């Protein structure tokens, strides 16, 4: 009986994720076509000129209580870079107070890779801005501390930024962290497959990736789009605000400003293992509707999402 209940729950979750993701695509498509074009001051066509292959890529990793994931993320960066000498990593500790920083310091000594450490307070926006301020590279990659990059990520980014204002990787959940077995495993994985495919459409056709897809742009573009002022004040949704600016730029230019690279960045499934996939995504959709149609600020969203102030 318990097994039958598990199967029934899995089928219910599949039906719900299909409904939620269909609603997401409908909401995103409506929002995309009502979007108004705008060219921010300071953004020029020079931001789409080819980058020299030896350009430094600065990888900014905001970290808040990421002791469980930061080691795997940093090791993957070091292993996956095709040209490690042109990459630097800047880990920004956002004040979680766990073992994140000791782990980073150990890896800084152990890995043959340029790893810097800085700190910030106030949420993800200030953390990204603090890391970007220390960056030496022409190109910035903002990497979540629970996301694994694909091999040769640096080659892909440097090449993509020669023709686009920004780029991101294809979204995928790291299935190696999912340990269900048998038919139940297959059923439990279907919602992740649905999510992967609909996020691919959202990011490519509607130009709306989120931060767990490892968004990259030039440092000059990041600055011109408010990275060191407006975005730096956002405790969360700084990735969404950046992408919205890029989407408005694309509307104004009549071109796509964000290219989605074919290789996947694999995100740890911890959020969706704690709660059903559809429920997590439904919560996110409710928040995005509140932001787009009721004008909620990132500060208000933070309070709504976490139940506390920054």
Automatic annotation (TrEMBL):
Gene Ontology cellular-component terms for this entry are: plasma membrane
Ranges for domain Glycosyltransferase 2-like: 58-195
Top-level taxon in the UniProt lineage = Eukaryota
Q: Which GO terms describe its molecular function?
A: glycosyltransferase activity
Q: Which InterPro entries match?
A: Glyco_trans_2-like, Nucleotide-diphossugar_trans
Which cellular compartments is it found in? Answer: Cell membrane
**UniProt keyword Heme present:** no
Q: Which UniProt keywords apply?
A: Cell membrane, Glycosyltransferase, Membrane, Transferase
Give the stretches traversing the membrane: none
Q: What is this protein called?
A: Glycosyltransferase 2-like domain-containing protein
* Source species: Pelagomonas calceolata
